[in-house]
Design goal:
Elements (H helix, E strand, L loop, with lengths): L5 H10 L7 H13 L2 H17 L1 E2 L6 E2 L5 H4 L4 E8 L2 H10 L4 E5 L17 H9 L8 E4 L5 H14 L5 E4 L15 H9 L6
Parallel strand pairs: 3-4, 3-5, 5-6
Antiparallel strand pairs: 1-2
Helix pairs in contact: 1-2
C-alpha cells in the first residue's frame, strides 16, 4: 500500500496494530480523523492517554476500575453472598450486560495453561482465598465458576474446587448446553451430552 504521506503511513501502521483492524480499515479511520476538526482528534488522543495512565485494577476483585475499589465492589445493592469467578474483565462486562447477576466478581487474570507456561501462581487465586478467609468469610455463601468450557477452563475450575473445599461453600458452574436458536444436529457431542445431564424441569 503506497501512501502520499509518511505521517499518514505511520498513523495507519499504529492503528492497524489494534485487534480486528486491517490496514484498509486503519486507513479509513485515519483519513476520517484527518477530515474532522483538530479538537476531535485531540479529544480522542487525550482520552486514550488518560485511560492508559489512570485506569487501574480493583484491589478486591481485580476488574478494571477508576479507583482502588470498583463500583461493583462498593455498591450496597450487590449481593455479597455470591462471588462469580471469571477469567478477565471482558467476562465481567458480558455477564453484566445480561442483567441477570447481582453478586460480586473475582477476576483471575487468565486460566491455567501449561502449554503457555501459565500456572496457578500466575493467577489471582491466592487473593480469592484471602477474601474468603478474611472480612468476607461470613457473608459469602456461593462461588460461581464462570470459566470457558475448554480443557484449560476445566483444569482451572478443578483446581479452584480443591482450593475452595475447606471453606464449605456451595461451588457451582454456569450451565453449558445448546444455544437458543441452535440445531441439535450441529452441536458437538460434549455440549449435547452436558445439555442432557444438566437438564431442567419443564414448567
Amino acid at each position: 500500500m503506497n501512501f502520499p504521506s509518511k505521517l499518514i503511513e505511520e498513523a495507519v501502521e499504529e492503528v492497524a496494530k489494534l485487534p480486528g483492524i486491517g490496514k484498509k480499515t486503519a486507513l479509513r479511520l485515519v483519513l476520517h480523523l484527518l477530515k474532522k476538526d483538530e479538537t476531535q482528534t485531540q479529544m480522542l488522543a487525550d482520552a486514550l492517554v488518560s485511560m492508559r495512565n489512570k485506569v487501574q485494577y480493583c484491589q478486591r476483585c481485580h476488574t478494571i476500575s477508576d479507583a482502588a475499589l470498583c463500583t461493583i465492589c462498593t455498591s450496597a445493592r450487590r449481593d455479597a453472598s455470591i462471588i462469580c469467578v471469571v477469567e478477565d474483565t471482558r467476562d465481567v462486562l458480558a455477564i453484566e450486560n445480561t442483567a441477570q447477576f447481582n453478586g460480586l466478581y473475582h477476576v483471575l487474570g487468565g486460566i491455567i495453561s501449561p502449554l503457555e507456561g501459565i500456572g496457578p501462581q500466575d493467577l489471582k487465586i491466592s487473593s480469592l482465598v484471602e477474601r474468603l478467609a478474611g472480612s468476607e468469610a461470613q457473608s459469602v455463601k456461593e462461588i460461581i465458576l464462570a470459566l470457558s468450557p475448554t480443557m484449560e477452563g476445566d483444569t482451572t475450575a478443578f483446581y479452584l474446587q480443591k482450593k475452595l473445599k475447606p471453606f464449605g461453600l456451595k461451588v457451582s458452574t454456569i450451565a453449558r448446553g445448546i444455544p437458543i436458536g441452535g440445531d441439535l444436529e450441529y452441536a458437538d457431542e460434549i455440549t449435547l451430552g452436558r445439555s442432557i445431564q444438566a437438564r431442567i424441569a419443564y414448567d
